[in-house]
Amino acid sequence: MIVVGGEALIDLVPVAQPPGALLPRPGGGPYNTALALGRLGARAAFCSRVSADGFGESLLAGLRAAGVDLSLVQRGPEPTTLAVPSLAPDGSAAYEFYVEGTADRLFTLPEALPAGTRALALGTCSLALEPGASAYEALLRRESGRGLLTLLDPNIRPALIADPAAYRARFLGWLPYVSVLKLSEEDARWLGGRVSDWLAAGPAAVVLTRGAQGLVVRTREGDEYTAAARPVRVADTIGAGDTVNAALLHRLSGSAGPAGGPVDWPGVLAYAAHAAALTCTRAGAEPPYAAELSG
């Protein structure tokens, strides 16, 4: 079992017609990661607090359809978080968020994760917004202490971070509890640190996504591997990084893991690049199914 913790929200995605129209689509980095894991055939569970409103019901319906376990989902009467992405000509997205008083911010620490849980993934808004951020941080520390493979994707959203210096310091405090740090080059620049320093703080591997330049991983042992991006016609990049998370978790959790034995990093990265490329060919966060990567 792979548990993904964090927010589920609605992306209001711009569409060409009628002009100015916004199409509601399921989203949130952790939600997309859990959805992608289910579609890839992994045994996955989503750990969050989801609104009881219509948007919340639609979010859970999408996870059910992908076979994701919802036993860790908390419910609340507060509204669903909304995100409004603006798309650049290359398909990349920037976001505005509507998060005040929303359900996912009120997540509380669960007593235990399901038996057989092998990995935990956290990131994005859920680690930037209190009071839920402290609960997710406590979950990371507890489960890392139990020996789980942990993946952190900070997926920085500057508009949600009121005190960048405090967030950067808190990020460094998470690293001793992280097995794999995955982040974009943009995230790395915003955080302002060096990969070598992050590796020295705890993670066994740091994976950087570089858009059209593909993926690179550096390991604690000093190894470096790359995978080229697959050339595709890009609809947008929404959910591509989340699909990378899922692909990494799917492959790593089935092995000894990056800290417990040898990893076929070229194969893992190539699989993640393929999955992310397929996501980019579709509008919104629509990760691929396992059968689409079998060829």
Number of helices: 8
Largest sheet: 8 strands, mixed
- How does the overall form come out from the CA principal axes? globular
> What string, H for helix and E for strand, traces the elements in order?
EEEHEEHEEEEHEHEHHEEEHH
Estimated radius of gyration: 17 Å
Question: Could you tell me the strand content as a percent range?
Answer: 15-25%
* Mean pLDDT across all amino acids: 91
Strand order of the largest sheet: 4-1-9-10-11-12-13-14
User: Which residues form runs of ≥5 with pLDDT under 50?
Assistant: none
Task: Name the helicity range.
Answer: 25-40%
SS-based class:
alpha/beta
Terminal-residue CA separation? 26 Å
How many E strands? 14
What does this structure look like?
By secondary structure, this protein is of the alpha/beta class. The protein has eight helices and 14 strands. The protein has an eight-stranded mixed beta sheet, with helices on both faces. The chain has a four-stranded mixed beta sheet with strand order 3-2-7-8. α7 (240-252) packs antiparallel against α8. The protein is globular, with a radius of gyration of 17 Å. The model has no long low-confidence stretch (mean pLDDT 91).
